[in-house]
């Protein structure tokens, strides 16, 4: 709890603090590009020594992640494969927030119709990582989940106001000023592209220009949004809708690191439950296995053979979900006519 919160967005000051905390001058620079709302969550951890706060952070968010996977799957046994998911170990190794983002998404989907206010609050909290939520308001509006949408919006505004009150206007100004650095990191590959799993990063890794990579990413994202919105608007099993939304989040953003694939556990859990209830005829087990291994498998592949491996897998996964949703709708129609 030292200094000015706005210093978190000053690369030089942040790097000095990172070296001081780690007690090493050899570490690389770790950027902080989250909106000031995230500082509300992190601030209490500053009262503890670094290792203690890291342990508290990872322990609490991991427990939350496991609980929400348990809820959305409906099976206590789902906790074991969720904790063994390779992306979990990447998240722990990086001290990252993927457990929190995945838990909030899983919880919001679970409570969407059960407790709309809770779902809205969870989605509002998820806005600390806005690039992962691009499709969420579109789906909420398209499906008429207005209460959830309004509560999520109010929660977001309340968090922004609270961070403004606690940390001051200069912190928000510093955050917006730091966005240029965030785009520079992405555009110039200052964060190695082989660690990233987005279409944009993979296309750049293959040698394409920034403009071409962005153009392909935008077209790709638009198509994914259309497909997933269709799945949600039409009658289909909620497990398939949840799996489609979780999968699409990983396809739309140009900024996707390997530990962000923790979100894929939501899709895998939902598809595994759907398969156990309806049969795995339309869900190849080997596809689920590849999805489960994806966070490590595709990082290694990208380093040696540049290609959008993760996005190819996600495309196949989303295509399977689309076909299952269409089949589910047709079966329901036949049942209604009989």
Assembly of the depicted chains: single chain
Q: What level of helicity do the residues show?
A: over 70%
List segments where confidence is low: pLDDT < 50 over at least 5 consecutive residues: 334-338
Apparent shape: globular
Which percent range describes the beta-strand content?
under 5%
Distance between the termini: 67 Å
Radius of gyration: 20 Å
Largest sheet: none
Structural class: mainly alpha
Number of domain units: 1
Order of helices and strands: HHHHHHHHHHHHHHHH
Helical segment count: 16
Kindly report the average pLDDT value: 92
Total strands: the figure is 0
GO molecular function: hexosyltransferase activity
Keywords: Cell membrane, Membrane, Transferase, Transmembrane, Transmembrane helix
Transmembrane segments: 47-67, 79-112, 118-141, 148-168, 212-233, 245-271, 283-301, 307-325
Main location: membrane
Keywords:
single chain; 338 residues; mainly alpha; 16 helices; disordered C terminus
In short:
The protein is mostly helical. Helices cover 71% and strands 0% of the residues.
Descriptive notes:
It is a multi-pass membrane protein. The chain is mainly alpha-helical. The protein has one domain (5-337). Helices cover 71% and strands 0% of the residues. It has helices spanning 11-22, 37-42, 50-73, 79-84, 86-94, 98-111, 116-125, 136-142, 146-167, 169-187, 199-205, 210-233, 238-252, 264-278, 285-304, 309-337. The radius of gyration is 20 Å and the shape is globular.
